[in-house]
Design a protein that fits this description.
The chain is α/β, with parallel strands linked by helices. The protein is built from 9 helices and 13 strands. Helices cover about 30% and strands about 25% of the residues. The mean pLDDT is about 95.
């Protein structure tokens, strides 16, 4: 069974149609990256799947269930959604934010139980944040903040995490730190990861499956080797790209590209 599937998904902001009749499937237990130019609908797709945006028409299935039939709490027990550049309330500590991940599993306004505290401690440990538990969020670096949000998602104990551009504003080392953490979660915890990424080479390096979108339509989907090709990049980004196999891991990598004259921003 696929983790996520859509049928005839159409999403609009007021009268602005962004996605029309989109159909795709996200494989369970894999890392899926969604790529495409700015404004193509990548983030909109993620928001519709995460039920942040209500589709105009169409269906979204989560583990085979119509997502409309599930309560917000049921969805939060199955899927964690991290938007682009999330903001924490002022003065909140690392541990307090991570503890929010246990909310979907609590009844009423109940206090954290011993099991909740164990899960929070585990989430802090695997994201290497234990020593920062009492530190307020404002005092963290960008990479540390991103790890806190991922720790909160881990505390939800879901099998699926959606992330919208988790490496935005991070330098190269922090980008790798975040993506290697997500890779570990997938390989060691069997967590399905779906993320929007701008960096083609990072998307290809960490993904098992890729979806390339332009103007709200899927241009290509498949393995990184099937998606990151000169032909696909020409159609999706309107660039003339040189793609080779990365010597260390064999994944496709774009080493050079030029704009195709007459196609800029079309």
């Amino acid at each position: 069974m696929n983790s996520i599937a859509t049928e005839n998904l159409t999403v609009a902001y007021d009268d602005n149609l962004v996605i029309a009749d989109l159909e795709f499937k996200i494989p369970r237990g894999k890392i899926t990256t969604i790529i495409g130019p700015n404004g193509c609908g990548k983030s909109t797709v993620l928001k519709a799947v995460g039920r942040i945006l209500k589709p105009k028409t169409g269906m979204v299935y989560l583990n085979g269930d119509d997502i409309r039939s599930l309560s917000a709490k049921e969805i939060a027990q199955k899927m964690a959604v991290l938007p682009q550049s999330p903001q924490a309330p002022t003065g909140l500590s690392v541990g307090e934010l991570v503890a929010y991940g246990r909310f979907p599993h609590q009844r009423g306004f109940g206090k954290l139980k011993s099991e909740d505290k164990k899960i929070i401690a585990w989430a802090l440990e695997v994201t290497k944040l234990t020593e920062l538990e009492t530190t307020v969020m404002e005092n963290l670096s960008g990479g540390q903040k991103q790890r806190v949000w991922i720790a909160m998602a881990l505390a939800q104990q879901t099998d699926l995490i959606l992330l919208d551009e988790p490496t935005t504003y991070l330098d190269l080392s922090y980008q790798l730190e975040v993506l290697e953490l997500l890779y570990w979660l997938n390989r060691e915890q069997n967590c399905t990861i779906v993320m929007v990424l701008h960096d083609l080479n990072l998307a290809a390096r960490f993904a098992d499956y890729m979806i390339a979108i332009r103007s709200g339509e899927i241009i290509c989907h498949g393995t990184p080797e099937e998606v990151v090709t000169a032909e696909v990049l020409r159609e999706v980004f309107h660039i003339d790209a040189q793609v080779i196999a990365e010597p260390r891991n064999g994944r496709p990598v774009c080493i050079s590209y030029d704009l195709i004259k007459g196609q800029e921003n079309k």
